[in-house]
Amino acid sequence: MDKTGPSRVLIVDDDPAIQKVLGIHVLARIVAIADAFDTMTSTRPYRNVLHLDIALSELSKGRETQFDPRLVGIFLEKEVFSILPAAGAFGS
């Protein structure tokens, strides 16, 4: 095991947007995207469910600032959201 330990990502990338998130474990970055999507597409006491298009747009806006841009790309392009439990419960 590397001295950085299991919680560090051992990827080298020249892209500054990727470098910002390299210190955050890939599973944590995936969970951040899934959690944000779940939060937006679930009813909360303080607001109604957001429409799928709005939730996906918000994830896209968060690329390179809040979320790993590559993982958001995979989430959107591969339609990962369609296999999540809330997939049939989006607002209209």
Question: How would you describe the overall organization of this protein?
Answer:
The protein is an all-alpha fold and 92 residues long. It has one domain. Helix content is 43%, strand content 0%. The protein has 4 helices and no strands. The longest helix is centred in the middle third of the chain and has 15 residues, at 26-40. The chain starts with 15 loop residues before the first helix and ends in a 15-residue tail after the last helix. The model is unreliable at 1-12 (pLDDT under 50).
Number of strands: 0
Distance between the termini: 49 Å
| Total domains | 1
User: Based on helices, strands and strand pairing, what is the structural class?
Assistant: mainly alpha
Question: What value does the Rg take, in angstroms?
Answer: 15 Å
Walk me through the topology.
Blueprint: H1 16-21, H2 26-40, H3 52-61, H4 69-77
List keywords for this structure.
globular; 92 residues; mainly alpha; disordered N terminus; single chain; 4 helices
Condensed summary:
By secondary structure, the chain is an all-alpha fold. It has four helices and no strands.
